[in-house]
Amino acid sequence: MTGCLFYGKGKWDKFVHAIFYLLDPSTTLGAGKKQLAFSDVRKFGKITLLNTKEAYESKHLKNLGPEPLEKQFTINNFKLRIKTKPNTKIKTVLLDQTIIAGIGNIYSDEILWQAGIHPKRKVSQITEPELKKIFRAMKTTLQKGIDFGGDSNSDYLNIYGLPGKFQLHHNAYQRAGEKCRKYGCGGVIMREVINSRSAHFCSRHQI
Description:
The chain is an alpha+beta fold. The protein has helices at about 75-80, 90-95, 105-115, 130-145, and strands spanning about 5, 10-15, 15-25, 30-40, 190-195, 195-200. It has a two-stranded antiparallel ribbon. It has a two-stranded antiparallel ribbon with strand order 3-4. α3 (about 105-115) packs across α4. Residues about 1-10 have low confidence and may be disordered.
């Protein structure tokens, strides 16, 4: 099923591939005004039916890495998983959902900016103290994203139809050509394509 979703001010979302019309329990007329829309710009997603008890053993989910904000996901777990890709660039590893689940392009840029690590550095070139910096930056950046209600740089809206505000706090993502916001840095945000994904980073403090 393909289609477009009208979401206000005359704008249609051409990336919506499915719309679920939700039942309204307060009326006997059936479907209410609320909708659940599946929007997938890069066509990475999928819709499938799963048995709840067996969902995490299905081919769709069994290879996902751990959730980075789980309390049991420690620095030691992080290092063990990251080091399984020693010859891969750190930006690419952070985006690998089989290593760690849930880190997207925006958050990987922001994590590496905060940690001061260049996105093209190979895992084998990153020291133990630097891995700790990445781990801490991952935890704080993702939590910050939650606190600000998500990132609406594209078309994300929450269940109330409201945008998140994390995009107002980007330090690297889509700020190419602007001065780095790190105090006393003096660098400029650069943009490069790494393994088909855009990477934004500071020319000075990310080494």
